[in-house]
Amino acid sequence: MSNSSANIYLVAGATRGIGLALVAEIAEKDPSAIIYAGGRNPSGSSQLVEIASKYPGRVELVKYVAADKAGNEAIAKEIGRSMVTLTRLGIANPLGKVHETTVENYEEHFSVNVLGPIVLFQAFRDLLKASALPRFIAVSSGAGSIGMMDMIPMDMSSYGTSKVALNWVVRKIHFENDWLIAYPQCPGAVDTDMGAVTTGQREEFVKHFTLRQPHEAASILVGIIRESTREKDGGQFHNIDGGRYLW
């Protein structure tokens, strides 16, 4: 799957929800794209396998486990010289108030949502630096905005804490790497099985937000990413409507 003129993407967390929709959107809208679709068991996702079959030679399934240093380095060796990275979408289950949430739950969220993207960036930094237009986009959440904390109606202590830390890391990456487009991107409220549905708070979500379907959010996100520049977007906390969130 080598092609020096191709737009190369790694979508880490591609077996469901927004990640799956991003793979489908990129494959359909960008004929030059080569997409590496990562997940713990990518071949176990019938929808992802179907997309790969629809675009032979353009969608490659790879095993991706958050914070797995050796595994991430192996993917980096496989992919090659130039790419765009969308980090793993993360976890958000269960949700609860600070006094209700176990330390183990905080640790799990931090491992996947913060250490996962850090390990991914470390593994791919050299490849990104070799790219003509490198981007490292972390999928964050409005729950990671300290300034908007009073506006988020659900109890998201462990999830929100991990996204605050993720935002800090990606903004730090922006300042440390003046050749890179890096920023955290909120996909908005999306009706996925990882989000409000499995956390049991879907009814609360729909009282406050209009839920987009994954393919709708993916279409908007891909457009934002394609038009992004370091000068305009780097180190900013993006929302899906084109604005910026408070940190």
Automatic annotation (TrEMBL):
Gene Ontology molecular function: any one: oxidoreductase activity
InterPro entries, per database record: Fungal_SecMetab_SDRs, NAD(P)-bd_dom_sf, Sc_DH/Rdtase_CS, SDR_fam
GO CC terms of this entry: cytoplasm
Keyword line: NADP, Oxidoreductase
Domain of life the protein comes from: Eukaryota
Gene3D superfamilies referenced in this protein's UniProt entry, alphabetically: NAD(P)-binding Rossmann-like Domain
Record flagged with keyword NADP: yes
Name of this protein: NAD(P)-binding protein
Lineage of source species: Eukaryota, Fungi, Dikarya, Basidiomycota, Agaricomycotina
